[in-house]
Design a protein that fits this description.
- By secondary structure, the protein is of the alpha/beta class.
- It has a single domain, classed as Metallo-beta-lactamase, Chain A (4-Layer Sandwich).
- The chain has 8 helices and 17 strands.
- The protein has helices spanning about 1-25, 115-125, 140-145, 145-150, 165-175, 225-235, 255-265, 280-290, and strands at about 25-30, 35-40, 45-50, 55, 75-80, 95-100, 105, 130-135, 155-160, 180, 185-190, 190-200, 205-210, 215-220, 245, 270-275, 305.
- The strands form 3 sheets. It has a 9-stranded mixed sheet with strand order 1-4-17-5-6-7-8-9-10, covered by helices on one side. A 6-stranded mixed sheet has the order 11-12-13-14-15-16.
- The longest helix is centred in the first third of the chain and has 22 residues, at about 1-25.
Amino acid sequence: MRRIYLVVLFLLIILFSIAIYTIGVSLVQTSISTTTTYSNTSKTHNIQETNTSIIIQKFKPTTTTLAGRGNVTLILVVDNDPDPNGLLESAWGLSILVETSNGYILFDTGPSPSILKHNLMELGINPEQIVAVVISHLHGDHTGGLPYILKVHPGIPVYVPGKDSSYLAPEIRRYGGRPVPVYNTTRVMEGVNVLGELYGPPWEESLLIISDKGPILLVGCSHPGIVRMVQEEINFTGRPPCLVIGGFHLLGYNYSECEKIAEKLIDLGVGKIAPIHCSGGTIKEVLDKLYPEHYLEAHTGSIIRI
């Protein structure tokens, strides 16, 4: 009898723990020009606020309207800088999820299937809802997570730089994906385009999203040069991006060099600038010091609404 009582008690404890974990949501939301402090049962977060809201949310991202007809949500699934909440794994690499009412578009996949899988699960994102993958360039820290996506979503289109597609296409087919070589700017869906490849080396493409606030430009490593890639977007849309986010390939650049690049981006009319991944700390320092109204800090776990 005592043994039955202990078993029942043990099961009740397990069920109670599961219930607590399921409803536990860590949420940080910012507003303009103030610092918000949010407390839950175990943590306190201090987030410097900007003109673009940043939300860190566990499990289910917010629902947004179709890109081009309303707001856009970007979810930074993988980046070098860690998630301050400790929910997601960080790694040298990049993966950004774009949320639209027609499904998710994944821009790059990070370096590892296991990291991508873990972070998507923690964010509550069903990979089967990803309708397209865009690969900026062929380096492994941007393509390494592809096998996971292709395994759970065979047949999904994977947009790759056309002149390097001979390297990428066989592996994509091997795991069940459908490679789509991009030589010129290509429409993915309404309001979403892959900007045609530029040479770095290697060949690299970027993702352009048209929102109500203006164009949004996602870059992988900017091997062709971040200023050149922004100029390419302006040539296509006739407008500067309200946000450019991604790797700027400025690791190792000195302060003066980064200052000149930041000045060029501002002169081109770029709104918010979010250097991540391979951008290095100097460009962040320059933007934070000289152009704080343009600088947007982001890291693994950031969810950016525009």
